[in-house]
Fold this sequence. Notes:
It contains no helices and eleven strands. By secondary structure, it is an all-beta fold. The strands form two sheets. Strands 2, 4, 5, 6, 9, 10 and 11 form a seven-stranded mixed beta sheet that branches. A hairpin with a 4-residue loop joins β7 and β8. The protein is globular.
Amino acid sequence: QVQLEESGGGLVQPGGSLRLSCTISFSTFGDYSMGWFRQAPGKEREFVAGIRWKIGLTYYADSVEGRFTIAREDGKNVVTLQMSSLNPEDTAVYYCAARSGVITSTWTTYDYWGQGTQVTVSS
């Protein structure tokens, strides 16, 4: 069983930065990938970034490449998403997700989800 809990969302001005964290609790999971997704009102859930935990391989959506950074904190079982140069289009509920095996950008392939954290970019 895997449990995920996000934190760090909030209100930020355009051009600002925010750091999200996802704490991972699991009994046995093996080789897995963590993903960050987001969903804005009236829109589909979309992939933001992913990391293959064991080897540290990362993958980003084009819309956030160069602005967001996903990272792991091994000793703490935490995955973070550092977001910079935020704009109003980044406003969404951000979700942390986990799956066994390779990173994918399809949200339906992830087995475990956190409850989500709201990120609002507004002046």
